[in-house]
Structures are given as structure tokens and as C-alpha cells.
Amino acid sequence: xxxxxxxxxxxxxxxxxxxxxxxxxxxxxxxxxxxxxxxxxxxxxxxxxxxxxxxxxxxxxxxxxxxxxxxxxxxxxxxxxxxxxxxxxxxxxxxxxxxxxxxxxxxxxxxxxxxxxxxxxxxxxxxxxxxxxxx
Amino acid sequence: xxxxxxxxxxxxxxxxxxxxxxxxxxxxxxxxxxxxxxxxxxxxxxxxxxxxxxxxxxxxxxxxxxxxxxxxxxxxxxxxxxxxxxxxxxxxxxxxxx
Lengths: 135, 98
Known about the structure:
The complex is a heterodimer of chains A (135) and B (98).
Chain A: E1 2-7, H1 13-26, H2 31-52, E2 59-67, E3 72-79, H3 107-114, E4 117-123, E5 126-134
Antiparallel strand pairs in A: 1-2, 2-3, 3-5, 4-5
Helix pairs in contact in A: 1-2, 2-3
Chain B: E1 2-8, E2 11-20, H1 25-35, E3 41-52, H2 54-70, E4 72-76, H3 80-89, H4 91-94
Parallel strand pairs in B: 2-3, 3-4
Antiparallel strand pairs in B: 1-2
């Protein structure tokens, strides 16, 4: 597994995206899947950056592992912020009109729908979110 | 992300190139809000947009709400990755995609 660790701030999301894409390209991951993973990285990291340590800041660790049989990318996110399980969040109502819709709440839902696996654990005070995407 | 703006009378078009995500969404949001006064038709050209995340959806929803009051908003050249996000989130029913 390759891992990157940096400050959990919005300004660092692009660095993580580049790091993840580098691993995916080396593994021959199709562009369509890479885009779905890039979107997931944006959603998860923006949440961690905004909420995990608020109003302070802290670190985030992002790992990429390529598995075989079946071929899959496993992307892990780790932070030491407030315990937060994104899977416990209720799905938004996606049938509302523009006027009825609230801004927000869609990010985690997009990740859930586009990944093949999503697991959350809290170990030793660390939030660990593991996404799996087959390709 | 690069935003190319074209204004013709009370019609405005934004062509986006790159990714509409957490990092770039505020830039597009500001660009729309600066230019939307008096606009009756807003066109977004997504031909060169690679993908959109929920941060981008927020900007589109805010623009759609404004345009519902003062005219119309249409999206052109939506690619497969962007369309998938619209469909999963129900935005395909809220937006006008041509």
C-alpha cells in the first residue's frame, strides 16, 4: 500500500487526487473508474477538512492499495478527529424540486452509490473509512 | 478549472474546462453571482468538464434557483461521468439538459 499524509485542509485535496491518480494509472485503472474515485476523494476529504478537527486542524492519511482477483482499488482515509461514521448518515431525498432541496448532504450519498464497498471503523480514536472499487 | 464567459445582451454562457469540485466550485459560484443580474438565459457548456462533485452540484442548484425566478438555465454537452452524478442525485430532473 502507498500512503500519503498531510494536513486535512481543502487546499490539499488536489495533492491527494494527484497521488491517488498516479497509483491508479500505474495499475491500469480505466478512466471512468478513476473519475468515480476522484469524486469520492473530493467528497470524503472535503468532509474531513471541514469537520473532523473543527475549529482546529489535524492530519489525514490516505492510502491506495490495488488488489487482484477481482482487481480492485482500495482507498483508505484515516483521521484523528471527532468520531464520525459517514455510513450512519441518512440518505438524502433525491426526488425533491430545486426549491425544496437543501444545499448539501449529497456527497456521501454519491460515494455510496459509486463505490462497490464502503466500511467504517473507529480504532484507537481514529476514524478509518475504507472504499473499495472494482475495475 | 478554466471558465470562459460569453455575454450577449441578457444571455450569458459559461464554458467550463477541468473539474468542478470542492477546490474550484467557489470560483464558479462567484463568477455566476457577479454576472447573473438581469440575465434571462444562462447556458453552461460542459463539453470540457471532466467531472463534478457535490460541491459543484451546490453551485448548479443555487444558480438554478435564481434562474427559476428570472428566466431559464440550460446545460449543454454533459458527458457520461457528469450525467451519472446528475442521475444518482436526481439533479437530472431538476436541471434542463440539452
